């Protein structure tokens, strides 16, 4: 299964969502930007998209809640180790509604896409589960960062 993301204005992406027959198509927004995310075995419906292969998943996506997107650059030689370790890690994240581990089709930045019931569930998880760090994990190729979004509301 493939996963696709694109950026745009909320109104444009909301219009695209009503025109397309893809479900669920999540509209994620924060103070800075709006992102559309969906999964499908077919090619992307977006004119410009970031394309991924889903290599790990748990739970069913909902069109409401809170999402954290962790960007993790991984070395080429570290990919097999990273994929194995993170597929095990997603099974241990019990408070999430849905989780996707996404391998990039181009580039080296994997995505850990986690949907939470609300922002407090994310904050609680974040306090007890630090992000990977280049000094600790030799397969990390650069800075790891997280973006957070509300789902389905502008």
Spatial shape? globular
Distance between the termini: 28 Å
H-E order: EHEEEEHEEHE
CATH C-level name: Alpha Beta
Structural domain count: 1
Low-pLDDT residue intervals, each spanning 5 or more residues: none
Compute the average pLDDT.
91
User: Could you describe the largest sheet, including whether it forms a barrel?
Assistant: 8 strands, antiparallel, barrel
Number of helical stretches of at least 4 residues: 3
Please provide the count of β strands: 8
The CATH architecture term is 2-Layer Sandwich
Q: What is the helix fraction of residues, given as a range?
A: 10-25%
Strand order of the largest sheet: 1-3-2-8-5-7-6-4
> Could you name the CATH topology?
Alpha-Beta Plaits
Our Rg estimate from Cα atoms comes to: 15 Å
Going by helix content, strand content and strand pairing, the class is alpha+beta
Keywords: Monooxygenase, Oxidoreductase
Protein name: Antibiotic biosynthesis monooxygenase
Would you write up a description of this structure?
This protein starts with a strand and ends with a strand. The protein has one domain (2-151): Alpha-Beta Plaits. The chain has 154 residues and is α+β, with helices and mostly antiparallel strands. It has an 8-stranded antiparallel barrel. The model has no long low-confidence stretch (mean pLDDT 91). The protein has helices spanning 10-19, 79-91, 119-128; strands spanning 2-8, 25-29, 34-40, 50-59, 65-73, 98-104, 109-116, 145-151.
């Amino acid at each position: 299964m493939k996963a696709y993301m694109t950026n745009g204005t909320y109104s444009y992406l909301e219009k695209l969502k009503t025109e397309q027959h893809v479900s669920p198509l999540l509209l994620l927004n924060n103070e800075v930007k709006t992102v559309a995310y969906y999964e499908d075995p077919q090619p992307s419906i977006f004119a410009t998209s970031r394309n991924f292969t889903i290599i790990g998943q748990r739970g069913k996506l909902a069109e409401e809640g809170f999402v954290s997107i962790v960007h993790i650059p991984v070395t080429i030689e570290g990919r097999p180790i990273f994929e194995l370790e993170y597929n095990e890690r997603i099974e241990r994240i019990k408070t999430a509604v849905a989780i996707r581990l996404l391998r990039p089709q181009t580039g080296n930045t994997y995505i850990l896409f986690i949907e939470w019931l609300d922002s407090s569930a994310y904050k609680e998880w974040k306090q007890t589960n630090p992000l990977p760090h280049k000094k600790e994990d030799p397969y990390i190729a650069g800075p790891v960062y997280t973006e957070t979004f509300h789902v389905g509301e502008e």
